[in-house]
């Protein structure tokens, strides 16, 4: 949601050349609402499981990817650093994949709930790369 609010009211973003595949701002709002609900449903399913090494590692990876998720918006919109935001998005995607892998050892349902987030994160990496490419020309 923060991403949508900052994006919609941000002259930096509005003035960027955008790749043709850039979704409309309203799409981001609904996608992120859905993804956050799915992320926290996945987290809830894992938290309810008995303690194990997989659960602890999964929660750590979840926390890291979520922290990267939170950091991304200020890096892109406030610092206006597309290259660093690209690195953050790649790390977020990697830690989301690790979270899915470890969550699958604890709860298959929780892992499946995160797959759309992984797909969206991978798409975001591609999209940011395109932003960098067309705005560096």
Q: In a nutshell, what does this entry contain?
A:
By secondary structure, the protein is mostly helical. It has one domain (23-135).
Notes on the protein architecture:
The chain has one domain. Helices cover 83% and strands 0% of the residues. It contains six helices and no strands. The protein has helices at 2-8, 11-15, 25-47, 53-78, 82-106, 108-135. Helix 3 (25-47) packs antiparallel against helix 6 (108-135), helix 4 packs antiparallel against helix 5 and helix 5 (82-106) runs antiparallel to helix 6. The two termini are 31 Å apart. The mean pLDDT is 94.
Keywords:
137 residues; mainly alpha; 0% strand
What's the structural blueprint in terms of helices and strands?
Elements: H1 2-8, H2 11-15, H3 25-47, H4 53-78, H5 82-106, H6 108-135
Helix pairs in contact: 1-3, 3-6, 4-5, 5-6
Low-confidence stretches: none
* Total strands: 0
Rg measurement, Å: 16 Å
- Classify the beta-strand content into a percent band: under 5%
Helices and strands, in N-to-C order?
A: HHHHHH
Overall morphology: elongated
Provide the structure class: mainly alpha
What value does the average pLDDT take?
Answer: 94
The helicity comes to over 70%
Report the major sheet.
none
Distance between the termini: 31 Å
Number of domains: 1
Give the helix tally.
6
């Amino acid at each position: 949601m923060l991403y949508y609010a900052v994006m919609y009211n941000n002259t930096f973003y509005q003035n960027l050349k955008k790749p043709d595949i850039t979704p409309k701002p309203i799409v981001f709002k609904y996608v992120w609402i859905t993804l956050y609900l799915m992320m926290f449903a996945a987290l809830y399913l894992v938290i309810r499981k008995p303690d194990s090494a997989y659960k602890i590692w999964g929660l750590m990876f979840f926390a890291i990817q979520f922290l990267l998720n939170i950091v991304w918006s200020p890096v892109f919109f406030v610092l206006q650093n597309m290259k660093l935001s690209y690195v953050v998005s790649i790390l977020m995607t990697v830690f989301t994949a690790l979270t899915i892998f470890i969550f699958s050892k604890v709860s298959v349902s929780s892992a499946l709930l995160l797959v759309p987030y992984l797909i969206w994160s991978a798409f975001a990496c591609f999209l940011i790369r395109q932003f960098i490419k067309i705005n560096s020309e």
